[in-house]
Amino acid sequence: MRSQGLTGAITMPGDKSISHRALMFGAMAQGETIISGLLEGEDVLATGRAMAQLGAKIEKRGNYWHVEGVGVGNFKQPSEPLDFGNAGTGVRLAMGLVGTYPFVSRYEGDASLSVRPMNRVLNPLREIGVEVVEEQPGGKLPIALKGPANPAPIHYKTPMASAQVKSAIMLAGLIIPGTTTVIEEVHTRDHTEKMLQGFGAKVDVTTDADGVRTIKVEGLPDLRGQEVLVPGDPSSAAFPMVAALIVPGSDLTIENVLMNPTRTGLITSLIEMGGDIELTNQRKSGGEDIADIRVKHSQLKGVTIPAERAASMIDEYPVLAVAASFARGATHMPGIDELRVKESDRLAAVANGLKANGVDCIEGEDFLTVEGMGDQVPGGGMVETHLDHRIAMCFLVMGLAAQNAVKIDDSAMIATSFPSFVPDMTRLGAQFGKPNH
Ligand code: S3P
């Protein structure tokens, strides 16, 4: 429903990527890892349950999550399949982390995860000598893996820009004697590199003149439990940020947001579109850049987003498309074919949602062009969310500024990454109608 200005301050839930990794690396390291700010969303909780099945002890005491890890190479064979629910990061990183062990491990997920491509991880694992004991046609879940008696280190160039694939190979490399090398042409989020170094792994990263990164991981390191401070998730901050830009009268401060340069492409893009966005209180915490974001309602203009920026804002395109709907002029987003293999086919889901709400757009195989309508976005449509939290949230944001209410078919998935989204946004002044079942 069209809302009055959004005002006040909001703190973001913990970063999803760092939360998954904190539980996994804590489970693998020797001794205790203490995590504050962990995202308690469904995706991350599924990873926590999987780590417990592998032998780690995980419990929440007060505001802290305590993980008692087993030490590198000491996971036990899980007696039941590891169920990652909706989480691509959870399952792909876990297949790297555990798949190389010389026992059978099984991986499964929900209906959305079960149609997502896993060959991107299975292929490098096969090169290491991992046997894919069970898979569904096209390399889909459920999958069972069995590691070789003598895994071999590989030298692997990732064929697509994917931090999940890079991370899976790096994690597999941890239990392989020798040096495992991953080459990535596009700099994707580097939380695995940074955090593994923090846990004591030897990870060497070099970047050549063309920006191609070579990451070398030494096998069999002695990893020790750490204190991990999880900063706020920039991918969640994207929703209140765009909401404040498009709802007239808004002036919002979003506190404690991760500013790792591999994650800030949306902020750069929204500023180019004329967004009044100011970073305040910039600081370092747990080896990462953090800031508060002050954002005010702004008249946006259409721009072309450089394809090279895609990796640094890959999860933010759906909500950028919503911002673009309220801009003057067209916004062109090339180089986004990876959106087709996220929690849903996000390119199609966004294009269909925009059209259902009276916004013209062109959906190409690997691009989206949105015809901005200024403050005249009709709304009034019903959006199919396809079990995708970000599709649900981005169209709820659209509804806050559209002329008519925007309906979504399901809001349950929001709990995977931002469980407090509706109450938090309501506190800032957002008005959401009741679902009519
Ligand atoms: C993630 C990497 C990205 C991103 C996902 C989280 C990670 O996926 O979309 O939400 O934590 O490594 P890809 O690696 O498939 O691009």
What does this structure look like?
- This protein folds into 2 domains: 7-14 and 231-427, Enolpyruvate transferase domain (UDP-n-acetylglucosamine1-carboxyvinyl-transferase, Chain); 16-219, Alpha-beta prism (UDP-n-acetylglucosamine1-carboxyvinyl-transferase, Chain), CATH 3.65.10.10.
- A hairpin with a 2-residue loop joins strand 15 and strand 16 (288-296).
- The protein is an alpha/beta fold and 437 residues long.
- Helix 9 runs parallel beside helix 11 (389-401).
- The strands form 6 sheets. A 4-stranded mixed β-sheet has the order 1-14-16-15.
- It is built from 12 helices and 21 strands.
- The mean pLDDT is 97.
- The site of shikimate-3-phosphate has 10 residues, from helix 5.
Overall number of strands: 21
Unique bound compounds:
shikimate-3-phosphate
- CATH class of the largest domain equals Alpha Beta
| Overall pLDDT | 97
CATH superfamily of the largest domain: Enolpyruvate transferase domain
Please indicate the percent range of residues in DSSP E strands (runs of 2 or more).
25-35%
Function: Catalyzes the transfer of the enolpyruvyl moiety of phosphoenolpyruvate (PEP) to the 5-hydroxyl of shikimate-3-phosphate (S3P) to produce enolpyruvyl shikimate-3-phosphate and inorganic phosphate.
EC number: 2.5.1.19
Subcellular location: Cytoplasm
GO biological process, one term: aromatic amino acid family biosynthetic process
